Amino acid sequence: MRLLVRLSKPSMYHRGKWRPDYATFECLALRLHGPMVSGKGFGAFIHADVDLPPQYARYASEQRRNPDGTYRVEVIVNHNAKTLAPFLASGLIEMDVRETT
Fold this sequence. Notes:
This protein is mainly β. The chain has one helix spanning about 80-90, and strands at about 1-15, 15-40, 40-50, 70-75, 95. The protein has one domain.
């Protein structure tokens, strides 16, 4: 399942405040994790485990690395609404979405 995902980068100090920084890119998701998280200042999202493209591996924190070598990233629901609709409608907490060949 191809999704537009958001990876947390190290925070930056800008105009006297710490600001979160993100890298947004498209990649293949292996597993989706719910429930949907919503909060103040950002859109609703779920988590997904992905194989990171090499150009984004330098931003990845070791705490987000899974034992199988994948990384946990955020998937913004509004950017992927049609793709995520079956998962969100199912009510499942976790879904394996690997493509079998």
